[in-house]
Amino acid sequence: MKICRFDDNRLGVLQGDAVRDVTAALDVLPTYNTYPLPTVDPLIAHLDKVRGRIDELLPDAPQLALSQVSLLSPVANPGKIIAAPVNYLKHLDEARTDSQIHHQNAILEIQKIGVFLKATSSLCGVSAGVDIQHPDRRNDHEAELVAVIGKTGRNIRREDALSHVAGYCIGLDMTTRGPEERSLRKSIDSYSVVGPWMVTSDELADPASLDFSLWVNGELRQKANTRDLIIDVAGLIEYASSFYSLQPGDLLFTGTPEGVGPVAPGDTIAVEMRGIGRTEVAVRLSPTAG
């Protein structure tokens, strides 16, 4: 099932080039009248119940053209956004040889530096686009597979890891180049683009062999397969959960291949990933740019 969020926080299921509006399925979610609020994303935490209600609604659900809706991030409230740096060997070589990428920072193997966290305020859907905050610096695209964590776990064994995934999305881990820590340069508003929808894990059971490509204004920049990940999805879940609990709605950006490059206001980024789909993201100058 391809589940999306669109327009004014409505819930949809993609069928061909149409979105079926199943917002009424959200009625099965619990309501929260007391503080504090839960630390998980309610939709993902109760996805089985929501899907059961979706199945009931689909035959009579209103239909909208995909081209007429504004796609939000499929996950509204991730507790954390986890990202894997330099997780493809050719990108590791690229980062080490390009001074505009490394900025005199030591580029170490992922096995030595581990994963990092991005601010949840950087999250947006594909229709929102990317807002360049620092146009005087190089701002790069990074296409990635994103895994959506579906259930709580700590010290998850590799053989159990994929059972903790609710679904998969296309991700753009945008970055401003510079000497600062990754988590700062990659946490700018709109620099964690996720979508265009979430493909549930029962429809994409093997994330270890997915072709994907990225174009900027029609020019092919990145082309790879997830089989080339240094640490694969299951390994990343095992590793990350050895440091902190993973919870429903957490997003795991799995790393980008070689071919990263700059974008500027006015550009259009297109990403296609087998098993998920294709999407386009506009690049604009942020209204708050200095």
- Going by CATH, the homologous superfamily of the largest domain would be Fumarylacetoacetase-like, C-terminal domain
CATH arch. level architecture of the largest domain: Alpha-Beta Complex
- Count of alpha/pi helices: 8
Which structural class should the secondary elements be placed in? alpha+beta
Short description:
By secondary structure, the protein is an alpha+beta fold. The protein has eight helices and 20 strands.
How would you summarize the topology of this molecule?
Layout: E1 2-6, E2 10-15, E3 18-21, H1 42-45, H2 47-57, E4 63-65, E5 71-72, E6 81-83, H3 89-97, H4 99-102, H5 110-113, E7 116-118, E8 123-124, E9 130-132, E10 139-141, E11 143-149, H6 158-161, E12 165-173, E13 175-176, H7 182-185, E14 192-200, E15 211-216, E16 219-225, H8 233-241, E17 251-253, E18 261-262, E19 268-273, E20 277-285
Parallel strand pairs: 6-17, 8-14, 9-20
Antiparallel strand pairs: 1-2, 1-5, 1-14, 2-3, 3-4, 6-7, 10-13, 10-18, 11-12, 11-17, 12-14, 15-16, 15-19, 19-20
Mind explaining what this structure looks like?
- This protein has 290 residues and is α+β, with helices and mostly antiparallel strands.
- It has two domains: 2-71, no CATH class; 81-285, Alpha-Beta Complex (Fumarylacetoacetate hydrolase, domain 2), CATH 3.90.850.10.
- It is built from eight helices and 20 strands.
- The strands form three sheets. Strands 1, 2, 3, 4, 5, 6, 7, 8, 11, 12, 14 and 17 form a twelve-stranded mixed β-sheet that branches.
- Strand 19 (268-273) and strand 20 (277-285) form a beta hairpin.
- The chain is globular and about 55 Å long.
- It starts with a strand and ends in a 5-residue tail after the last strand.
